[in-house]
Write a structure and sequence with these properties.
Distance between the termini of chain C: 35 Å
Structural class of chain A: mainly alpha
Structural class of chain C: alpha/beta
Number of helices of chain A: 14
Mean pLDDT of chain A: 87
Chains: A mainly alpha, B mainly alpha, C alpha/beta
Distance between the termini of chain A: 42 Å
Radius of gyration of chain A: 20 Å
Shape of chain A: globular
Radius of gyration of chain C: 18 Å
Oligomer: heterotrimer
Largest sheet of chain A: none
Low-confidence stretches of chain A: 1-5
């Protein structure tokens, strides 16, 4: 009875076109531009993984960066402290992040929305505090620098392609998850957890799985950060980064799949360009955030949609 | 731990007493947050910033006036300054957002932490500051073989005063009663026709005032630095959660759990002392996911 | 099929349900009536697990389901609608019902297959039955109140329940919508053989459809009997006169 599923042509063509354009960048862009785009891709993956639980799951994931940092540290520690094959280090990132997601999730998921977020932010900063102080193992506040990367992904172009390929695969998987039955149930839980329980859905179990998935993808983003930068530092687990990713989701629009990516692109560009003129980037980000909250609550994509709809209405009358 | 064997009852008690005076500060700050959470439902990330501003204000006032007088002036001026600042923010910006989602409110408070952290850098520079312990409280008390710095003893006395004051405020004053009612059922209070806006505004200001007071009181005991907003906000979150959201006595219980377990942590595991209170909180939450005391909402 | 005995629940000293007894046989349409605040909604919440009773037992198909979490109770075949509209406002009408269908088929942990072609036939069959098929792609939050109440019921059917519990299905409906709802309940019972337990203020509707009526007052069950017997019962008349 069930009809086989077909992608509409635009939903296949557009991503492929974008992918091809991105793949061409190393041939035309400067080193700095390649670096900037890699940064956007990594941050975009991080923000989208957050949005899986935030926008689609309605969970107050206030400290998502801790999974990102954990992934990055897993990779870095495996590469520097063990003689294992490099792929082990890269597999360790999502696995380590997912395990942390499981541990924090088990404690937090039983609490109501706001409690969940507040407890998560506190537990996350505990992880930060441990990383920050454990000089012998994590390098403390210096972090770990000069991480030896396998030659096929080190340096500008190879690193860029490794990042692009991984991010593309992750986005494909994330999109499948959002469109899957699990994704649909997840959105139902966001809208109305009580009703979900009443139609036979164990809400907390789904939220836990969602958190573990999101953490794993954040871990992948962390590993990619190591590929791009060759170093890790404790700021990657700091709460301000978590909230910065939240801002990206808000800015892009968190009810849309591509929203966080758009938001990440805008914030990363702003930080790169504005940050080079002034040391008070934080202040500017704060004011910027206030403006978004007051004037752009649906995010950029929401605004774009409103404008095109208005335009369509005008042209049809 | 090598010196683990040398713990005497006295050193343990000594540590706990010092921990207890730290608890006072935690309680003052956390009760402010708890009050705001209970009535306004805002997880105020800027609470830590107000605490930090309180500390920096106290430093400036005390440096300008000097000696014991300077300290009292600081303890008076810093909270009031913070309260004025928060009043302007609440009237000017926050009140337009009360019916938005929690997430928006949280991010909005976060925008203030961002702005304030840079503003403080602009005003006070990024160096460490330190404020001397006022002459009046230099020295220490000896009792039953225990030594307690006078300033810590002063803090121990301030805690109960603030607790009783808050209790009287919520139980006896009209605003306090309305605030408690609003915490339980906001629509009801709206329906009766009480000016809820005014109550919200008051609660917001009092909550921030407590953060400022905490900052002023902590100033003589530690370095006043840029990052102090972060540490305190995590601690108050935990305290408020473990005590029960929006409950003043919960804030006290939570502060005790946190402060005392931290004191124990410093004794047994100095490098990672901070881990112990977190563990204590996690263990409590595993058994009582809704906190120790009944939360108001 | 469903057997409730001595159920009790209090909220901070207020006894919402003091001593509720109820029997529902397979194929019945049972109504629970009583004045406002008699504890009808609380009783339903106790049966379907939204609340845990202080005392008493709930047996379903001879198994004790007292105090199980709601999703477990739903898995066993009891499904419910709510008095206040309780739908998924940001999902489309189709998706609202599909969520229940997916839950019933235990597909909720499926991560990779697209959702949009799962349970389509089943979902559309339910939507057609409730006359909602034309609106299938609208966001549920934008429907009229009456349609939202109908959707509310449709979601409950997505789980193919053996026992359907409806909490004031016609609350806030216009007379036409109420009549429509009545016809719907009768048809459901006749076509699918589903057992229905509902509570309702509209006495006409109650006496028109139910095969058995339970009367509650101040949290206690006064009587459960056939409509004729209930109509004749003196205590019931007093309970209602007392309210007026």
């Amino acid at each position: 009875m069930e009809t086989p599923f077909r992608y509409s042509s635009s939903s296949i063509v557009t991503p492929i076109v974008i992918l091809v354009i991105l793949a061409c960048i190393p041939w035309v862009g400067s080193r700095f531009f390649i670096y900037l785009v890699s940064g956007i891709l990594v941050t975009g993956l991080l923000a989208t993984s957050l949005n899986l639980v935030l926008g689609f799951g309605g969970m107050y994931q206030f400290h998502h960066a801790v999974f990102y940092g954990t992934g990055a540290y897993c990779t870095a520690l495996f590469l520097t402290k063990t003689a294992l094959a490099p792929w082990v280090a890269f597999v360790a990132a999502p696995v380590g992040a997912a395990l942390l997601g499981l541990a924090i999730g088990v404690i937090c998921v039983r609490l109501s929305k706001l409690y969940f977020g507040m407890l998560q932010i506190s537990l996350g900063s505990l992880v930060w505090a441990v990383v920050y102080r454990w000089y012998g193992f994590t390098g403390g506040d210096d972090g770990i620098h000069g991480i030896p990367l396998p030659s096929w992904i080190s340096g500008g172009k190879p690193a860029y392609y490794a990042v692009l390929l991984t991010v593309a695969v992750c986005f494909f998987l994330l999109h499948r998850i959002v469109e899957s039955p699990f994704g649909r149930i997840f959105q139902a839980i966001r809208d109305n957890p009580v009703r979900c329980e009443a139609v036979g859905i164990p809400v907390q179990r789904h939220q836990l799985i969602g958190q573990v998935l999101a953490a794993a993808f954040a871990g992948v983003a962390g590993a990619l950060f190591v590929v791009v930068e060759g170093s890790v530092f404790p700021d990657m687990l700091f709460w301000t980064l978590s909230l910065e990713i939240l801002i990206m989701c808000l800015l892009g629009g968190w009810f849309r799949f591509w929203g966080p990516m758009v938001g990440a692109a805008i914030i990363v560009c702003l930080r790169t360009y504005v940050g080079s003129y002034t040391e008070y980037w934080t202040l500017i980000l704060g004011v910027f955030l206030m403006l978004i909250i007051f004037f752009l609550p649906d995010g950029v994509l929401g605004l774009a949609e409103r404008l095109t709809r208005r335009h369509a209405k005008v042209s049809s009358t | 731990m090598a010196e683990g064997g040398s713990f005497t009852l006295q050193t343990i008690l000594q540590q706990l007493l010092v921990g207890l005076s730290r608890t006072t500060i935690l309680f003052i700050v956390a009760s402010g947050m708890s009050l705001m959470l209970g009535v306004l439902r805002i997880p105020n990330l800027a609470h830590g910033s107000f605490y930090m501003i309180g500390a920096f204000l106290a430093y400036s006032v005390s440096a300008a006036i000097g000696s014991t007088m300077g300290f009292w002036a600081a303890v008076l001026v810093a909270p009031i300054g913070v309260a004025l600042l928060s009043f302007v923010i609440e009237r000017g910006l926050f009140r337009h957002l009360y019916d938005r989602e929690h997430l928006m409110l949280l991010l909005f408070t976060f925008s203030f932490t961002l702005v304030f952290s840079d503003l403080i850098k602009l005003i006070w520079g990024s160096d460490y500051r330190s404020m001397p312990v006022p002459e009046m409280f230099q020295g220490s008390i000896q009792a039953m073989g225990l030594t307690l710095p006078l300033y810590n003893a002063f803090l121990l006395a301030v805690g109960p005063v603030v607790a009783v004051g808050l209790w009287l405020f919520t139980q006896k004053t009209k605003i306090g009663k309305i605030a408690r009612a609003a915490a339980v059922d906001r629509e009801m209070v709206d329906a009766i026709g009480i000016d809820v806006q005014m109550v919200y505004s008051m609660v917001f200001v009092i909550g921030c005032l407590l953060a400022g007071l905490g900052g002023a009181l902590v100033a003589p005991t530690q370095n006043i630095t840029q990052g102090m907003d972060h540490g305190i906000i995590m601690e108050t979150f935990l305290i408020v959660i473990v005590g029960g959201l929006g409950n003043i006595w919960g804030a006290l219980t939570g502060a005790l759990v946190f402060g005392l377990s931290h004191a124990v942590g410093i004794m047994v595991f100095p490098q990672f002392a901070i881990v112990i209170p977190y563990l204590a909180v996690v263990v409590i939450l595993l058994f009582r996911p809704r906190g120790l005391l009944k939360s108001i909402w | 099929m469903l057997h409730v005995e001595n159920l009790q629940k209090s909220f901070e000293g207020f006894m919402a349900v003091a001593d509720a007894r109820l029997d529902v046989a397979k194929g019945d349409i049972v109504a629970v009536i009583g004045p406002n605040g008699a504890g009808k909604t609380t009783l339903f919440n106790l049966i379907t697990g939204q609340l845990r009773p202080d005392r008493g037992r709930v047996l379903f198909k001879d198994e004790d389901i007292t105090g199980l979490p709601p999703y477990r109770i739903c898995e066993r075949g009891i499904c419910r609608s709510f008095q206040i509209v309780n739908i998924f406002p940001r999902l489309s009408v189709f998706e609202n019902v599909q969520v229940a269908v997916l839950a019933h088929r235990k597909r909720t942990l499926d991560l990779m297959k697209p959702a949009r072609n799962q349970g389509v036939a089943e979902t559309e069959r339910i939507l057609t039955g409730f006359g909602l098929l034309e609106q299938r792609d609208r966001k549920a939050g934008t429907l009229s109140h009456g349609d939202q109440k109908v959707l509310e019921m449709a979601i409950a059917l997505g789980n193919e329940p053996d026992l359907l519990i409806l909490d004031e299905p016609t609350a806030g409906m216009s007379p036409e919508e109420t009549a429509h709802c009545l016809a719907l309940m009768k048809r459901l019972s006749a076509e699918t053989g589903v057992t229905i337990l509902f509570c309702e203020h509209d006495m006409e509707l109650v006496f028109a459809v139910s095969t058995s009526i339970m009367v509650m007052q101040q949290g206690k069950t006064i009587i459960q009997d056939t409509p004729e017997a209930v109509r004749a019962c003196k205590q019931v008349q007093e309970a209602y006169l007392g309210e007026c």
